[in-house]
């Protein structure tokens, strides 16, 4: 794989304002996954935010569709990720595009460096809806009432 972005461009792509290409109204349960197609406000770039909701591992994966590079991925689980410097990051974490990690890891695919949560406004929480909202803020996704996710069969305890 050839790296088609640098750190500055990846960061710019994360921070430009985006909106959804279609309404996304879902009630999810454990085991569900989905994707939200997005575009930049100026309409020049398309992205996808994929999510998977499970008891063992919840993932939010944000990708640039032009390059197919992951810009960031949030993983909520007790497992770990090992960076190129052999440091293991345990528990809830975020992998963020990092060109130096691509060259240091030298495996031809890994282009993100892992950081423990909290990270730049994304808290260390296991709550799907909280992290989803924080991911949207971090990625500058304007929901504009078009992205609504709820947890199916969620009971309120009094």
Overview of the structural elements:
With 158 residues, the protein is an alpha+beta fold. The protein has one domain. The chain has three helices and twelve strands; from the N terminus they run H-E-E-E-E-E-E-E-E-E-H-E-H-E-E. An eight-stranded mixed β-sheet has the order 10-9-6-5-4-3-1-11. It has a two-stranded parallel ribbon with strand order 2-12. The longest helix is centred in the last third of the chain and has 11 residues, at 128-138. It is globular, with a radius of gyration of 16 Å.
**Unreliably modeled segments:** none
With helices defined by DSSP (H or I, 4 residues minimum), what is the helix count? Answer: 3
- H/E element order: HEEEEEEEEEHEHEE
Shape, please? globular
Keywords:
single chain; 158 residues; alpha+beta; eight-stranded mixed sheet; 3 helices; 39% strand
């Amino acid at each position: 794989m050839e790296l088609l972005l640098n750190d500055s461009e990846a960061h710019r792509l994360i921070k430009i304002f985006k909106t959804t290409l279609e309404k996304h109204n879902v009630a999810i349960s454990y085991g569900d996954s989905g994707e939200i197609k997005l575009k930049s406000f100026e309409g020049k770039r398309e992205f996808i935010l994929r999510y998977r909701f499970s008891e063992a591992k919840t993932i939010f994966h944000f990708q640039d569709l032009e390059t197919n590079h992951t810009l960031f991925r949030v993983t909520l689980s007790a497992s770990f990720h090992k960076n190129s410097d052999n440091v293991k990051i345990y528990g809830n974490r975020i992998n963020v595009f990092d060109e130096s990690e691509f060259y240091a890891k030298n495996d031809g695919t890994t282009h993100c460096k892992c950081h423990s949560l909290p990270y730049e406004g994304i808290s260390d929480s296991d709550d799907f809806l909280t992290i989803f909202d924080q991911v949207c803020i971090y990625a500058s996704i304007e929901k504009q009432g078009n992205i609504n996710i709820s947890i199916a069969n969620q009971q309120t305890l009094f």
